[in-house]
């Protein structure tokens, strides 16, 4: 797992890389937007909530983004940037994976 350069610069402002909102259609699931602010030609996210299948992010200006419906819980995830497993530099880390808690 590669650590992005941003992970070594704690003075850098924390970016909002994971945004959780209620899902208007369902009270159980949350709309979770993931953003990758690094370089890359192809970016995906993989986790239990993607059924271990990488989900592609779309390029939006200077970042990559995707929004998924996810049930509340604690999940570990990784970005796959140009084929390399990469941590989210703006999320907590556990067991070599980025960590998200959805309430």
Strand content: over 45%
Helix content: under 10%
**Main sheet attributes: strand count, strand direction, barrel closure:** 6 strands, antiparallel
Mean of pLDDT: 89
End-to-end Cα distance = 27 Å
Number of helices: 0
Count the beta strands: 10
Report the C-alpha radius of gyration, rounded: 13 Å
Main structural class: mainly beta
Instruction: Encode the helix/strand succession as letters.
Output: EEEEEEEEEE
Summarize the structure.
With about 100 residues, this protein is an all-beta fold. Helices cover about 0% and strands about 55% of the residues.
Task: Quickly list its features.
six-stranded antiparallel sheet; four-stranded antiparallel sheet
What does it look like?
This protein is mostly beta strands and 103 residues long. It is 0% helix and 54% strand. It is built from no helices and 10 strands. Strands 3, 4, 7, 8, 9 and 10 form a 6-stranded antiparallel beta sheet that branches. Strands 1-2-6-5 form a 4-stranded antiparallel beta sheet, with no helix packed on it. β5 (58-60) and β6 (63-70) form a beta hairpin. The protein has strands spanning 18-23, 26-36, 43-47, 55-56, 58-60, 63-70, 73-81, 84-86, 92-94, 97-102.
Describe how the helices and strands are arranged.
Blueprint: E1 18-23, E2 26-36, E3 43-47, E4 55-56, E5 58-60, E6 63-70, E7 73-81, E8 84-86, E9 92-94, E10 97-102
Antiparallel strand pairs: 1-2, 2-6, 3-4, 3-7, 5-6, 7-8, 7-10, 9-10
């Amino acid at each position: 797992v590669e650590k992005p350069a941003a992970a070594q610069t704690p003075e850098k402002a924390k970016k909002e890389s994971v945004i959780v909102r209620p899902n208007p259609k369902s009270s159980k699931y949350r709309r979770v937007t993931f953003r990758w602010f690094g370089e890359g030609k192809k970016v995906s996210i993989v986790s239990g909530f993607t059924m271990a299948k990488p989900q592609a992010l779309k390029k939006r200006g200077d970042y990559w983004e995707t929004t998924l419906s996810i049930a509340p819980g604690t999940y570990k995830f990784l970005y796959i940037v140009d084929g390399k497993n990469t941590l989210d530099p703006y999320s907590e880390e556990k067991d070599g994976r980025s960590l998200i808690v959805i309430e």
